[in-house]
Amino acid sequence: MSERHDEPWTVLRLLDWTTEFFKRKGSESPRLDAEVLLAHARDCARIDLYTAFADEPGEEQRIAFREMVRRRGEGTPVAQLVGYREFYSMRFRVNDATLIPRPETEHLVIEALDCAKQFSADRPLKIADIGTGSGAIAISVVKNCSSAEMTAVDVSEAALQIAIWNAKQLEVDDRINFVESDLLSAVEQPDSFDIICSNPPYVSESEYTELSPTVRDFEPRGALVSGPDGTEIIARLFEETPDRLSAGGRLIIELSPMIADACQVLAQENSAFGDLRFIKDLDGHRRILSVQRK
Ligand SMILES: C[S@@+](CC[C@H](N)C(=O)[O-])C[C@H]1O[C@@H](n2cnc3c(N)ncnc32)[C@H](O)[C@@H]1O
Hints:
It contains twelve helices and eleven strands. It is α/β, with parallel strands linked by helices. The chain has two domains: about 10-75; about 100-294, 3-Layer(aba) Sandwich (Rossmann fold), CATH 3.40.50. It has a seven-stranded mixed beta sheet, with helices on both faces. A hairpin with a 2-residue loop joins strand 1 (about 85) and strand 2 (about 90-95). The longest helix is centred in the N-terminal third of the chain and has 15 residues, at about 60-75.
């Protein structure tokens, strides 16, 4: 961002220059990235930039912006630079211990809320979120289902700290029991759940090497990689959750379209489950698998 003395660095000029820079660096959303970072540097909403195109940000804001632009150019995700990501119309704090919540995971929340409606509203609904990360799924479900009593687990203590922070910030910490656990092994109560949701790691070791550096070098490997095939943790979910689901309860799992066939076979081979359905993402790919405990 070299200074040219004839033209001032207005908001519009900063955005245009940075958009071109991010394009050259291969960002998939260069304009959006530039706007989010400049809004953060100016401590304003992104929409407020549109009425401030002619403003000239002061030195302090420009230094803060320039540093974030430099790091974004090196691959750091925007969410980690600003410290949060919007999910289900809420703001979730993230850091390098948590996966950055993805828009496709909102389909899982919608399926969980739809399933929740099928249970009686007269009693608490026992729901688990396995691999809660930033708490995005657990918190979104609790916020939108008044009868939900949530257990949110993760093997990563550092991720759980962020989830707890988000739950406090969003004022649902009294309705979520956070447990450090390998799947549900350390969860003693309740004995059985009505709904178990999970967005588990489902990337295979070979796919991991092909991921964009913005994901591979900045998001936790343990949140992404499942094992050689990508199906290992999902296979464990099918094996281990039948004992923890009430009859008629549902297991709802996010997966990658590439392993949808393999996961369908795993579900169909397991006699504890029936009523299998897939929910597709906005690109028309099978993204969420939902099965019922017989
Ligand atoms: C793909 S991330 C999902 C995070 C969050 N639920 C979301 O959708 O944004 C998977 C999460 O599962 C956790 N995890 C990995 N293996 C686990 C296991 N065996 N038991 C519990 N959590 C696990 C990771 O630490 C990570 O936070």
